[in-house]
Amino acid sequence: IAGYIWGFDKGSWFVKGVGLFLAALGLIYYGYQRERMHQVNVGFVMVAIIILSVFLRLVGDMMNTGMIFLFGGTAIILTVWGLNKVRSDLSSKIKDQGEEGTSL
Predict the structure, then answer these.
(1) What is the distance between the alpha carbons of residues 25 and 104, in angstroms, rounded to a whole number?
(2) DSSP letters along the chain, please?
(3) Residue partners of 46: CB distance under 8 A and separation at least 6
(4) What is this structure's pTM?
C-alpha cells in the first residue's frame, strides 16, 4: 500500500514483491509448523494481495489490449481456487494434528 501512496521506482517493484512473497510463504510455513491457523490465513491473504497488485499493474500497463482481461481473470480465478484448496488442506492437517495431540 505504501508503494501506491509514496511510489516506488519500477526497478524495485520486482525485488520488493519477491521479498514480500517469500515473507508470506514463510508466514504460511511458520503458522503450519506451530499449528496457528490464523497465521496461515494471514499468509494466504498476503499472497492474494500480491497477486492482485501484480494483476492491477499489468492491466494498467497493457490497457490497450482486451485479451489481458480474459487471461488475467482466468488466472486470478484459478489462483484463488488453488490457494483455497491449499489453505483448506493445511487447515485440515492442523486440525488432525491437534486432535492427535489431545487424544494422548
Answers:
(1) 31
(2) -HHHHH---HHHHHHHHHHHHHHHHHHHHHHHHTT-HHHHHHHHHHHHHHHHHHHHHHHHHTTT-SHHHHHHHHHHHHHHHHHHHHHHHHHHHHHHHHHHHH--
(3) 20, 23, 24, 27
(4) 0.56
- What the block records as the C-alpha cell of 95 is 486440525
Both ends of the chain: CA-CA distance in Å? 46
Under 8 Å between Cβ of 81 and 64:
no
Residues 66, 88: Cα–Cα separation, whole Å: 34
The 10s digit of each residue's pLDDT in 21-36 is 899 889 888 988 888 8
Cα–Cα distance measured from residue 74 to residue 58, given in angstroms and rounded to the nearest whole number: 14
Show the cell assigned to 102: 489431545
